[in-house]
Amino acid sequence: MKFTKLLASAVMVVSLTACEDVFEDGSLQPDGSKPALTIRNPTSNQKLTKASGLRVKLTASDKDKVKELQVRVRAVGGDADHINFTTLPDKKILEFDTLLTAYELPQGDYTLTINATDFRTNVATGEVTFSVK
């Protein structure tokens, strides 16, 4: 009986020590694998009308989950964002599809920038240029 308790205690100590090693190895540090990011809409050099709006459709995935997705729209050569928002999906595979209003966008060329950040702070960035008529 004493041997069983001793063996159980030894197994528990080894298990907890192994867990401690996992948490102390910097598990929240970048691991070198950025999220995979595919922007399906808008397409490169797509021409939009204000009435049609800006459809943003993308897929982001990461083994450590996508923690944050930032969507920005800025005029080409501009220094201010016309659209800028962040969502916190907390998913390994994120299918994002939304329609944004384009009434506030003056005619011209714009860059859509998407930043996907995983739970280890790796960032993937995708950009697409489009026009508003």
Could you characterize what this model shows?
- The protein is elongated.
- Helices cover 17% and strands 52% of the residues.
- Strands 1, 2, 3, 4, 5, 6 and 7 form a 7-stranded mixed sheet that branches.
- It is an alpha+beta fold and 133 residues long.
- The termini are far apart.
- The chain has a single domain (28-132), classed as Immunoglobulin-like (Sandwich).
- It contains 1 helix and 7 strands; from the N terminus they run H-E-E-E-E-E-E-E.
Q: What structural class do helix, strand and pairing data support?
A: alpha+beta
Low-confidence regions: 19-24
CATH superfamily: Immunoglobulins
Q: What's the architecture, going by CATH?
A: Sandwich
Helix content: 10-25%
Sequence of secondary-structure elements = HEEEEEEE
Distance between the termini: 82 Å
- At CATH level 3, the topology is Immunoglobulin-like
Nearest-angstrom radius of gyration?
Answer: 23 Å
Count of helical regions: 1
Strand content: over 45%
Please give the domain count: 1
Q: What is the CATH class designation?
A: Mainly Beta
How many distinct beta strands? 7
Shape: elongated
Q: Taking all residues together, what is the mean pLDDT?
A: 87
**Largest sheet composition:** 7 strands, mixed
Question: What topology emerges from the helices and strands here?
Answer:
Layout: H1 2-24, E1 36-41, E2 46-48, E3 54-75, E4 81-87, E5 91-100, E6 108-118, E7 123-132
Parallel strand pairs: 2-7
Antiparallel strand pairs: 1-3, 3-4, 3-5, 3-6, 6-7
